[in-house]
């Protein structure tokens, strides 16, 4: 039989010197086989066959073929007289670095090498694992102490750094040297990649005297050694520049050689790699299981080998004696005996069954007569039954809530009956809309509304441009007269915003404040105002529309933040007495609409019944919308996009003809304008579906009464007489929404709810006040999606039809 090939060291076979005689023993396995194995103590775990194999000459802590073939004796003798210098300039024998500890010692090509800086980062990334296993990280470079200090300051290396000015350690380890091992195609490609990653070569360190002595042609390497001078576990020698060692091999050599330390090092390694405790726990359990399995299998192999040798020598006398298994007698479990005579207990206890195993403990059945129980047991059972009855009566089970929800389906009348109710509602809304809409003049006929409140209206481009020209001419006359210029800006402070019950909306009281350029406090605001007027004038002159974001990016340094330009844009709208859409500055598309609606968007005909589940985006330029047609019976206003998608996908507008629209949360100007226009032109009732929380009611109030931020344009943005269809706080108990679908109100929610109760527009509606008080009393809120606990289509199949049938709105 041919002898197997001798073991060789991975990566560094050519430069490691001749192999010792022990390395050529035939029973050893090939290096290719050993590389596919991981070591745990003196065991190699074969990853291909998942079976533990014990190497005949393996040392405790050896890693693969490197440890088997490492010529430690001659190497240690060469390193005995080698000294390196720490950052303080103190000489340290190199073998002292691993004399009393285990250390990973990396050798750099030179301190300015870009490849060595990358290797230093790779080692630093594993430093937590090494520290967990008690392993020190050391780096040695061929240069002066000053170069080592500069290296530490540049890359922030956390390990120990030493300098070897004479290259004595490199000579002792016989690292590769020469021009052809430095400039190779692989090294060049790797340097290009590192430069793309951000690494840079320090040319001053690379060509100083100590490095230039041998031209920097030495290659580096890495060893794992200790504790003990001659205990060298792993050696890697770079064949060429950038020939980095396998970090997994380095970790196995330095951290996973001892089973106890290896478990914890592996724990830290997985945590740093994954960052999740669940991965750490699973991997740690698997690792411990592998270690214990290897140890058990090894002990079994050793015992089997001893038994075979004994059988061969002594024959039948070597049969191992089997120890009889002693089973302890079963201990009877203590049972509580009532305070009665033993005779009566024996009489009531049934005889033991002959088929039952004697090892099975016997548990007497509980007495059926409660009088035989002790008083403490009677109280316990009575309390448990009372508590169960109380809990069952206090909170209905989920199954009972679901059955009740399904029972409501039987209360639904045919769709024709519900449609008749909706037609009567639509006719009532149309007749009510025929009455003249109230204006500020109706509020106080004796006073001039323009002198008391800010009134804005839609204006054409020529009118707005003319007003801007008059403002600029007035500012120019003021400057020529030596008084500087100042803008008279209407104050939009909260104190100037009032709610008028007759009009059912918030309006802005006329009170102006000066914004002079000569004042330090208002100079920047005056400059922004002049800049916005200039930009609006240019947009109107070109006859185009721009977004508020476009306006902001025309002069980012001046505006600083978009909120600054947006606020000044509202001020300009108040100054000119026109709506913001008249300035040709709009917001981005946000709202969507779907249902029984047809209109023209800048001449393009849009059929909202053919817009799919997503619906048609509401145009930001509502003034370009024309030709609105619909056969709907009502408008359904939805707060959130999720409920909108459910209604659109179920084609709710075909079952009950309606127009469904949403602003996906806080309403934007375009959606509010579009809703008001539908209400005015189609004369349809508007029903609102919002969340049962203070924010849902606040969003509904913005549609109805307007927002304080744009109170100057409330006449064009508000849609009065919106009916609150749901989800209301009283619906949570009425429809038995499960407790797990309700959310507790936070302190901020309660604060917002109490503030809403103090608002004048809420006090005008008793239904709103009752619902808010119910919400604050129960301290519970719920979203529209809470109805999905009864079924994903429960909203469209039961809840909304039943609401419309019963006309259950506020």
List keywords for this structure.
810 residues; alpha/beta; 5-stranded mixed sheet; 34 helices; 27 strands; 44% helix
State the gist of this model.
The chain has 810 residues and is of the alpha/beta class.
Give a written overview of the molecule.
- This protein is α/β, with parallel strands linked by helices and 810 residues long.
- The chain is built from 34 helices and 27 strands.
- It has a 6-stranded mixed sheet, with helices on both faces. Strands 8-7-6-9-10 form a 5-stranded mixed sheet.
- The model is unreliable at 1-70, 270-286, 312-325, 333-347, 352-370 and 383-396 (pLDDT under 50).
The end-to-end span amounts to 98 Å
Determine the mean pLDDT: 76
Structural class: alpha/beta
Walk across the major sheet and give the strand order: 20-17-23-22-24-25
- Beta content: 5-15%
Compute the number of strand runs: 27
Low-confidence stretches: 1-70, 270-286, 312-325, 333-347, 352-370, 383-396
Q: Using only CA atoms, what is the Rg?
A: 43 Å
Largest beta-sheet characterization: 6 strands, mixed
Number of helices: 34
> What percent of residues adopt helix (DSSP H or I)?
40-55%
- Silhouette: elongated
């Amino acid at each position: 039989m041919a002898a197997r090939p001798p073991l060789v060291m991975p990566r560094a076979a050519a430069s490691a010197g001749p192999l010792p005689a022990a390395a050529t023993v035939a029973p050893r396995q090939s290096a290719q086989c050993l590389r596919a194995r991981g070591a745990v103590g003196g065991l190699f775990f074969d990853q291909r066959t998942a079976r533990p194999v014990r190497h005949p000459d393996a040392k405790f802590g050896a890693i693969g073929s490197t440890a088997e073939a490492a010529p430690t004796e001659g190497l240690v003798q060469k390193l005995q007289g080698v000294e390196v210098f720490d950052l303080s300039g103190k000489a340290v024998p190199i073998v002292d670095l691993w004399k009393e500890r285990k250390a990973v010692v990396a050798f750099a090509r030179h301190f300015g090498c870009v490849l060595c800086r990358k290797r230093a980062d790779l080692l630093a990334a594993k430093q937590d694992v090494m520290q967990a296993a008690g392993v020190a990280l050391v780096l040695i470079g061929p240069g002066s102490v000053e170069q080592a200090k500069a290296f530490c300051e540049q890359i922030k290396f956390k390990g120990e750094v030493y300098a070897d000015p004479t290259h004595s350690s490199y000579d002792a380890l016989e690292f590769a040297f020469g021009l052809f091992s430095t400039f190779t195609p692989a090294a060049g490609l790797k340097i290009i990649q590192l430069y793309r990653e951000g690494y840079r070569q320090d040319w001053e360190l690379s060509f100083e005297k100590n490095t230039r002595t041998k031209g920097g042609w030495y290659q580096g390497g890495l060893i794992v050694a200790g504790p003990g001078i001659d205990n060298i576990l792993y050696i890697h020698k770079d064949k060429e520049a950038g020939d980095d060692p396998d970090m997994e091999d380095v970790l196995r050599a330095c951290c996973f050689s001892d089973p106890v330390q290896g478990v914890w090092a592996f724990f830290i390694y997985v945590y740093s790699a994954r960052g999740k405790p669940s991965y750490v726990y699973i991997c740690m359990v698997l690792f411990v299981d592998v270690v214990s399995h290897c140890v058990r299998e090894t002990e079994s192999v050793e015992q089997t080998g001893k038994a075979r040798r004994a059988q061969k020598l002594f024959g039948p006398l070597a049969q191992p004696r089997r120890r009889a298994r002693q089973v302890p007698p079963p201990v009877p479990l203590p049972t509580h005996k009532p305070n009665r005579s033993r005779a009566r207990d024996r009489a009531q206890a049934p005889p033991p069954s002959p088929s039952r195993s004697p090892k099975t403990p016997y548990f007497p059945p509980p007495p059926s007569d409660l009088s035989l129980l002790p008083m403490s047991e009677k109280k316990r059972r009575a309390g448990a039954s009372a508590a169960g009855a109380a809990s069952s009566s206090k909170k209905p089970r989920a199954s009972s809530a679901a059955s009740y929800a399904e029972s409501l389906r039987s209360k639904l009348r045919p769709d024709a009956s519900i449609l008749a109710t909706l037609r009567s509602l639509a006719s009532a809304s149309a007749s009510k809309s025929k009455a003249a809409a109230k204006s500020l003049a109706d509020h106080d006929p004796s006073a001039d509304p323009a002198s008391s409140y800010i009134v804005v209206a839609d204006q054409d481009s020529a009118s707005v441009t003319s007003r801007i020209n008059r403002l600029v001419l007035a500012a120019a006359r003021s400057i020529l007269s030596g008084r500087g210029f100042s803008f008279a800006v209407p104050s939009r402070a909260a104190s100037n915003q009032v709610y008028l019950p007759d009009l059912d909306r918030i309006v802005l009281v006329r009170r102006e404040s000066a914004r002079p350029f000569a004042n330090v406090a208002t100079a920047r605001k005056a400059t922004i105002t002049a800049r916005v007027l200039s930009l609006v004038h240019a947009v109107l002159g070109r006859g185009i529309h721009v977004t508020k974001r476009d306006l902001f990016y025309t002069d980012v340094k001046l505006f600083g933040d978009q909120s600054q330009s947006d606020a000044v844009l509202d001020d300009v709208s108040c100054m000119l007495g026109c709506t913001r859409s008249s300035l040709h500055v709009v917001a981005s598309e946000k709202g969507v609409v779907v249902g029984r609606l047809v209109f023209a968007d800048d001449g393009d005909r849009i059929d909202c019944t053919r817009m799919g589940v997503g619906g048609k985006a509401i145009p930001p330029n509502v003034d370009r919308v024309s030709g609105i047609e619909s056969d709907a019976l009502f408008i359904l206003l939805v707060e959130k996009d999720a409920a909108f998608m459910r209604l659109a996908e179920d084609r709710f507008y075909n079952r009950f003809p309606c127009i469904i629209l949403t602003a996906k949360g806080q309403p934007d100007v375009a959606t509010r304008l579009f809703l008001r226009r539908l209400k005015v032109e189609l004369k349809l009732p508007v029903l609102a579906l919002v969340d049962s929380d203070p924010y849902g009611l606040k969003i509904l109030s913005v549609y109805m009464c307007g927002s304080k931020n744009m109170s100057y344009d409330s006449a064009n943005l508000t849609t009065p007489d919106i009916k609150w269809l749901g989800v209301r706080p009283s619906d949570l108990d009425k429809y038995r929404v499960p407790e797990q679908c309700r959310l507790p109100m936070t302190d901020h929610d309660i604060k917002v709810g109490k503030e809403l109760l103090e608002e004048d527009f809420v006090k005008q509606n008793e239904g709103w006040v009752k619902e808010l008080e119910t919400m604050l009393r129960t301290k519970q809120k719920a979203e529209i999606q809470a109805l999905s606990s009864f079924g994903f289509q429960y909203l469209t199949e039961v809840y909304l039809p039943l609401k419309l049938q019963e006309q259950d709105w506020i």
